[in-house]
Write a structure and sequence with these properties.
about 20% strand, three-stranded mixed sheet, YefM-like fold
């Protein structure tokens, strides 16, 4: 189910709108007839991250933390 509500009314009904979204409903906040935002629930990630999974596949250059050269700032100059 989709619920559409004007922003003025949404300000006073935020807890109710969040409850609707958490139950799986889509809530769209409008200004007049123009949609502004959509409230949807944040779902937990299904994947578990594993530390070290890509060890050795990603690298950083030795000068990574060094200041950038002027060529980096002005590549088309001179």
């Amino acid at each position: 189910m989709t619920k559409t509500i004007d922003i003025i009314k949404a300000k006073t009904q935020l807890p109710k709108l969040l409850s609707l979204a958490l139950k799986g409903n889509e809530v769209i906040i409008t200004e007049g007839k123009k949609p502004l935002a959509k409230i949807i629930p944040v779902l937990p990630s299904k994947k578990t991250r594993v530390a070290g999974l890509n060890r050795g596949k990603i690298w950083t250059s030795a000068d990574f933390d060094e200041p950038l050269t002027e060529l980096c700032y002005f590549p088309l100059a001179g």
